[in-house]
Structure formats: structure tokens, C-alpha cells
Amino acid sequence: MKIPILGIEIFGSESETDIDPICGMEVVKSNPPGGASRHEGQTYIFCGYSCKEQFDADPRRHARAAAK
Ligand SMILES: [Zn+2]
Questions:
Q1: What is the CA angle 53-59-62, rounded to 5?
Q2: How many domains does the chain have?
Q3: What pLDDT score was predicted for residue 15?
Q4: C-alpha of residue 5 to centroid of ligand 1, in Å
Q5: Domain span including residue 29
Q6: What pTM did the predictor assign?
Q7: Ligand 1 centroid to 18 CA: how many Å?
Q8: Consecutive 10-residue runs of the chain (68 residues): their mean pLDDT?
């Protein structure tokens, strides 16, 4: 498990983001503050541990909600 490190260096367009499926916030893929979870071959990343906990409690529901 990777520990998120504070002090993110942003390298212009190199900082790819993805959407936190719980709250809809943009999170930098390389360093998600809440970590990441895998579900059915997809990786989901989170802005904070509380969002990850919510996802892990019911991943199917949240994964489906995120797929638009
Ligand atoms: Zn979130």
C-alpha cells in the first residue's frame, strides 16, 4: 500500500486526474489523498479516506453510479 505524500508537485498537463465516485471531486491519479480501490477491473480513486470507506462498504452501488 502506498502512503500518499503531501506536497504534490504539479507538472503541467502531466497531472492526470480522475473523478472520485463518491463526491465527484477531481483527484490526481498519481497521488490520490484517499487512496484507491479496485472493483471489477476498474480502479477508483478518492479525495479522502471517508470516501474510500463509503465505496468499500458498497462498491457495486457506487461503481455503477460513477459509470455514466
Ligand atoms: Zn471524495
A1: 95
A2: 1
A3: 78
A4: 17
A5: 17-66
A6: 0.72
A7: 11
A8: 59 76 95 95 96 96 69
Non-local (6+) Cβ contacts of 57 within 8 A are none
> Which three three-digit cell numbers place residue 48?
479522502
Distance (angstroms) between ligand 1 centre and the Cα of 28 equals: 12
Q: Indicate whether 60 belongs to any domain.
A: yes
Establish if 47 belongs to a structural domain.
yes
Give the whole-angstrom CA distance, residue 24 versus residue 18: 9
On whether residue 24 sits in a domain, the answer given is: yes
Residue 36 lies in a domain: yes
Residue with the three cell numbers 498519481: 30
CA atoms within 13 A on the CB side of 38: 3
